[in-house]
Design brief:
The structure holds 2 protein chains of 2 kinds.
Chain A (H helix, E strand, L loop, with lengths): L1 H19 L12 H11 L1 H28 L17 H8 L1 H32 L6 H13 L2 H11 L6 H8 L14 H28 L4 H9 L4 H12 L1 H16 L3 H6 L17 H11 L3 H29 L6
Helix pairs in contact in A: 1-2, 3-15, 4-15, 5-9, 5-12, 6-9, 12-15, 14-15
Chain B lengths: L1 H25 L13 E8 L5 H10 L3 E8 L1 H14 L6 E5 H8 L22 H6 L10 E6 L3 E5 H6 L6 H7 L3 H15 L8 H10 L16 H14 L11 H9 L4 E4 L3 H8 L7 E4 L10 E5 L7 H11 L2 H11 L2 E2 L8 H4 L11 H10 L10 H16 L5 H17 L1
Helix pairs in contact in B: 9-10, 17-18
Classes of the chains: A mainly alpha, B alpha+beta.
């Protein structure tokens, strides 16, 4: 890489010397300030420009990660300043016997499945619809992105009212079809209903975003592939699964990883869905408490920062594993073109 | 060899330049503008409306060297912000307001606050309601981290029109006489639901908390041991009885359905501290004149109330204490009551005509200046343990599950004990 970069730089330097040499001996090269500036620009500027990202990552990304790891190995309770010192792996050991943690993991996984799978499938269908010739094409494309630009707190609060028991619109609509009636669904009473409600919020927000990513990838697929398939008698559905999906596979893998990370860090939706959100218990019996929510509760409500840090690290490792598995699965399912 | 060295050199150079850029951006932040001429800026953090705007002007006029910065925020956010600043070691306000709901959490970190007893605040002990003074006192009784401002008191707000429709008396003294005890309260509720087929109270937890507040011992004894079989059991049994009788609408406070309930009549009565009156008025302006206020069964109660504290991080502790002391003087406390209706926590003020003669037109001209002080004074001090907040949430959640019918009432107490024990050790 550096050799290819160096080539234009040196030729540039020679050209510059030629212009400013004023007929002096070409071997006597005393670089002028302009040369130096040019050299600096060519050789160092890219690093200078990219540096702020790495520095900010160092300060706000890597440092907290490492510091979190240190805290995870210590006793650190805000409500008991006398309890300090190294705890070794005690915090991690506590994790295995903590039913709250396993419950939160179960919830997170359940909500993740209920949100990511329909979300990506629907995004794929929306994208393939948008990829056709439509009237007011731009309007539709901007339209699907609107949920994405809505502030997440605002939309969650609206959904929270939407899913309220007595005067919520969800129950009203279901009531029109004869579901509920005198005993309206209490969306916050059991796991399944709460998960569905939260997954709906997530899906609503991210379908359009993923659809646009898919759409961008789809537009780079040559038309003649589809024409050939159509000639061979493949219908739209078959074209979608046999041509589109394999050809946009890198983007699909990308969205799967992104939605895994997002799904496992789900926080605002379950938090604001709770009627008593301040307590961060995710329902009266932790029906929809996610791991991120549990970390917040343990850290800032139970004031046990050491244990919360251990949970954060566990979450980090879980995300790595699940994202890895998902990538493998997606590679298999969407055509098996392994790279 | 040489190549790799230059690459390193390049990276280091780039890093240094980048660092300089970042440093240049963050160079001028958080510098106090306190000049050498003795000018002092005091920052007060609080939530909602503490009625401080006029007092600020007044104090600044009397003390030209002091500038007051009022910083109002959201209730939970302010407390969490304070907690984070205490951990970080800097950035907290000179005077930080703390609600009684968070007091236990901060009281157990009393080393991070200025001990007001060192500043001579001990002389105020006799002026405060005894339980109010005790709430902000550290467990060993040696550190007082805050002085009380307002207190909630507790009464029962009820809908006169709904009571009338159910054939119950509507006049406030008669209603108070209707329920001297919680047993009688549940009977009245049964009468109401029998007649109207509607729910009587808003939520089980809003019955549980006032009853628990009246018990001599709450969740924890003074040694911070969980005591479920005493006070909590009494309150829990009453609440389960009320839920089984079908009195509770199972609504969560400050949520959409609950707010809607004020106008729609989802419930006819609710436990009501002084600061709740403003919320009802704002939420259901159309119900003016349909509300009245009666005494709480069982004698007394309190819900909410605040304290002013000085974090040790403050650079102007002496000036902050001077301002704090001034703010809790009777004159200022009455000023606040007139302005925003926050009831002072110093009983001597309750006989002041400005408070004693105050009536609220929205609530059928109920003499709130008489009702709430009486309730606040009827309360016996109760020790709140370090884990009181999480324990209360855990038991409330069990009550919610019973109301959701996902937990059988017979199994509820065992579950409540289990959850409370878990919360106490979390």
């Amino acid at each position: 890489m550096s050799t290819t970069r160096a080539a234009p730089a040196s030729s540039g330097r020679r050209a510059a010397t030629g212009r400013h040499g004023h007929g002096t001996d070409p071997d006597h090269r005393r670089p002028s300030w302009r040369d130096r500036l040019y050299r600096f620009d060519m050789r160092y500027m890219p690093y200078v420009l990219i540096a702020p990202f790495f520095l900010i990552f160092l300060v706000f990304g890597l440092f907290p990660l490492v510091f979190n790891g240190v805290v995870a190995l210590r006793n650190y309770r805000l409500d008991d300043p006398t309890l300090t010192g190294w705890a070794g792996l005690a915090n991690f050991r506590q994790l295995f016997g903590d039913e709250d943690f396993w419950n939160a993991l179960y919830n997170t996984f359940g909500i993740f499945l209920l949100s990511s799978v329909p979300q990506l499938l629907l995004a794929l269908i929306v994208a393939s619809l948008l990829n056709r010739r439509l009237r007011a094409q731009t309007w539709w494309r901007v339209g699907v992105l609107l949920p994405y630009v809505t502030p997440i707190v605002a939309s969650t609060m609206v959904f929270s009212v939407f899913f309220s028991r007595d005067f919520g619109m969800a129950n009203w609509v279901l009531g029109l079809f004869g579901i509920g009636g005198d005993e309206p669904i209490n969306w916050r009473a059991d796991k399944l209903h709460a998960w569905i409600a939260i997954a709906t919020m997530v899906n609503w927000k991210w379908i359009g975003y993923n659809a646009l990513l898919y759409l961008a990838a789809m537009q780079s697929i040559p038309r003649d592939v589809y024409e050939a398939a159509a000639v061979d008698g493949a219908g739209p559905w078959r074209q979608l699964w046999r041509i589109t999906v394999p050809m946009i596979q890198p983007v699909i893998v990308f969205t799967v990883i992104l939605s895994t990370i997002g799904g496992f860090q789900l926080f605002i939706e379950p938090m604001l869905f709770d009627l008593n959100s301040q307590a961060a218990t995710g329902g009266p019996n932790g029906e929809w408490q996610t791991i991120a929510q549990l970390i917040y509760k343990v850290g800032w409500k139970d004031l046990n920062l050491g244990y919360a840090a251990a949970m954060s690290w566990a979450l980090f490792l879980i995300i790595l594993v699940v994202a890895g598995i998902n990538t493998l699965l997606t590679n298999r399912l969407s055509g098996g073109r392994s790279r | 060899m040489k190549r790799s060295w230059t690459r390193w050199a390049r990276a280091v150079t780039a890093g240094t330049v980048g660092l300089a850029l970042v440093a240049a951006c963050s160079g001028k932040s958080g510098q106090d503008s306190d000049a050498a001429d003795g000018q002092v800026t005091l920052k007060i953090n609080f939530w909602g409306d503490f009625g401080l705007q006029d007092l600020k002007t007044k104090y600044e006029a009397a003390n030209p060297n002091v500038k007051i910065q009022l910083n109002s925020g959201e209730y939970n956010a302010q407390h969490e912000d304070l907690q984070k600043k205490l951990v970080a070691g800097s950035g907290a306000a000179d005077i930080a307001a703390i609600d009684e709901g968070f007091m236990v959490q901060f009281r157990s970190q009393s080393d991070k606050f200025v001990n007001l007893l060192d500043k001579g605040a001990g002389s105020y002990e006799s002026k405060y309601l005894p339980w109010k003074w005790k709430q902000s006192l550290s467990a060993d009784g040696k550190t007082q981290i805050g002085l009380g401002t307002d207190t909630g008191g507790l009464a029962m707000c009820y809908r006169t029109d709904l009571f009338k429709a159910a054939g119950l008396p509507t006049e406030r003294d008669q209603v108070s006489a209707l329920w001297p005890t919680w047993d009688r309260f549940i009977e009245v509720g049964l009468q109401y639901t029998g007649k109207t087929n509607k729910k009587f109270i808003d939520a089980g937890s809003n019955l549980f908390n006032p009853i628990l507040g009246q018990q001599p011992v709450g969740f924890y004894n003074e040694q911070d041991q969980l005591q479920m079989e005493q006070g909590p059991k009494v309150a829990f049994d009453y609440t389960i009885k009320a839920i089984q009788a079908g009195l509770s609408a199972n609504l969560a406070s400050f949520q959409a359905d609950w707010d809607k309930g004020f106008t729609s009549g989802s419930f006819a009565v609710l436990a009501c501290p002084a600061w709740m009156l403003g919320h009802i008025k704002d939420t259901a302006p159309g119900t003016q004149g349909k509300w009245d206020i009666a005494a709480v069964p069982g004698g007394g109660g309190n819900w909410g109330g605040s304290f002013l504290t000085i974090p040790k991080q403050s650079k102007h502790v002496d000036e902050a204490y001077k301002l704090l002391e001034w703010l809790v003087q009777p004159e200022q406390q009455i000023e606040v009551f007139k302005k925003v209706g926050n009831l002072p926590s110093q009983p001597a003020l309750y006989s002041d005509p400005a408070i004693a003669d105050f009536t609220n037109p929205f609530f059928s001209n109920a003499p709130v200046g008489q009702i709430f002080p009486k309730m606040a004074q009827g309360l016996t001090p109760q020790y709140l343990g370090k884990k009181n907040g999480p324990t209360r949430v855990a038991v409330e959640n069990v009550l919610t599950r019973v109301q959701n019918k996902t937990l059988k009432p017979e199994a509820a107490w065992a579950e409540a004990v289990k959850e409370a024990e878990k919360a106490s050790t979390s």
